[in-house]
Specification:
heterodimer; A: 8 helices; B: alpha/beta; 5-stranded parallel β-sheet; 26% strand
Chain lengths: 214, 199
């Protein structure tokens, strides 16, 4: 696994200096979470399951906002990587790791806020919850980068429309886990999630190496 | 011993279905200097991007043989990362260079004043950005150096720094490729001209 510390450092530095996700997306989501219980109070008979589904919905919306916060311009990226003599595999792995390191704590904060404001919890063990979020975050970051470096959709709206169904598919694995499953079934779901993560990571690296993308 | 680093017969380049360069024979040697000249729209930037592997258009299945050597390009738009400081950009773009940090800084300070080191690149003028890019080229010392519109944004001192860089590289048998509308005359440096108006 080729991870370049310079690319990793650069990505983290840019995020730290701009803080676009921390200062824009997280507060927006927090406000939505605060408003959400007020909106539904006195209108619906809210049961526990609805809160779980809403929590997933918030995670998907947050992931999508995070993904489109700073679109990659492919032409500029190629120039930058060539000027620094970096390989695209190094970029993919390092950028995925950087995005994961930025994204995961925010997903945790989002979930804690959601639990706090809606006074709800998930029906699974803490380990299952953390593992499901880790897998979800890794896949979200990888799919976002694959989507941006292999397609020329740098329009935020098109990105939003196309990336939401992908994230919905990823959340299908989280749904049952959070709604409550027996430990054996939960293990199967987590193993499937691990398989998907390895598959996405492996095929992307193989493809980039094979077509010799610089 | 000079070697061909890029060879292509019947090279056609363009964007979507539109052909910009058609049926060109290209043999570029790694110890020679070249100037690509031509009018607006002749395909200078397209060819330059193709040479430096930055081309993102269509190559119409042209057969290309390319040696794996370091080719760095300074294009007409900046490559530096605006949100980072000069020092951070320097660390990022020269990570593959074996030169010590102190020596790297000494090279950079030949091109721009010391005060700029902790300044974000987005606050730099176009001329300053170009000078930083030139200093990075001097540090990295690639086998092939391509520069699009070499005199753009540079003042007389900047032009003199660029001239010295090309002369030094040329004296060490490193390839320099310039692209502009008219031939740029540099003393003591011989160029082979690739005239796209004739192609």
């Amino acid at each position: 696994m080729k991870i370049n510390k310079y690319i990793l450092k650069k990505e983290l530095l840019i995020e730290l200096k701009n803080s676009s996700s921390l200062f824009l997306i997280t507060p927006t989501m927090s406000v939505l979470i605060i408003i959400f219980p007020i909106l539904i109070e006195n209108r619906f008979a809210v049961n526990e399951d609805l809160f779980i589904i809403s929590r997933l919905l918030f995670v998907i919306i947050f992931s999508t906002l995070f993904a489109i916060r700073k679109p990659i311009v492919l032409n500029q990226l190629t120039k930058e990587l060539n000027f620094g003599n970096y390989m695209k595999t190094e970029f993919f792995n390092s950028k995925s790791l950087a995005e994961f390191l930025i994204f995961l704590p925010q997903v945790f904060i989002l979930n804690i806020l959601f639990s706090g404001f809606t006074n709800s919890n998930v029906n699974t063990s803490l380990i299952n919850l953390i593992l499901s979020m880790v897998f979800f975050a890794v896949n979200v970051c990888m799919i976002n980068i694959i989507f941006q470096i292999f397609t020329s959709f740098n329009n935020r709206f098109v990105q939003f429309i196309l990336i939401v169904p992908m994230y919905l598919a990823l959340s299908i694995f989280i749904g049952p886990l959070w709604l409550g499953l027996g430990q054996e079934l939960a293990n199967i779901y987590l193993l499937m999630y691990l398989g998907i993560t390895i598959f996405i990571f492996g095929t992307t690296n193989y493809y980039i190496e094979k077509v010799n993308l610089r | 011993m000079s070697e061909i680093f890029l060879k292509s017969n019947d090279l056609s380049l363009g964007y979507s279905n539109q052909i910009v360069i058609k049926g060109m024979n290209l043999n570029l040697f790694d110890e020679k200097n070249y100037q690509i000249i031509g009018k607006n729209g002749a395909g200078k930037t397209t060819l330059m991007n193709f040479i430096s592997s930055n081309f993102d258009g269509t190559n119409f299945e042209s057969k290309v043989d390319r040696l794996k050597i370091s080719v760095n390009q300074i294009s007409s738009t900046p490559t530096l990362i605006y949100d980072l400081t000069l020092e951070e950009n320097l660390n990022y773009f020269t990570s593959d260079s074996s030169i010590s940090t102190e020596d790297k800084l000494n090279v950079v300070f030949k091109y721009i004043p010391r005060d700029y080191l902790d300044e974000k690149v987005k606050n730099f003028s176009s001329g300053m950005i170009r000078r930083v890019e030139l200093s990075i080229i001097e540090i990295k010392n690639p086998s092939v150096f391509c520069i699009d519109e070499p005199l753009n944004f540079l003042d007389s001192e900047g032009v003199s720094l660029l001239t010295n860089l090309i002369k030094n590289r040329s004296s060490r048998n490193k390839c320099n490729i310039l692209s502009s509308q008219e031939f740029v005359k540099l003393d003591d440096v011989d160029f082979e001209v690739i005239d796209l108006d004739e192609n």
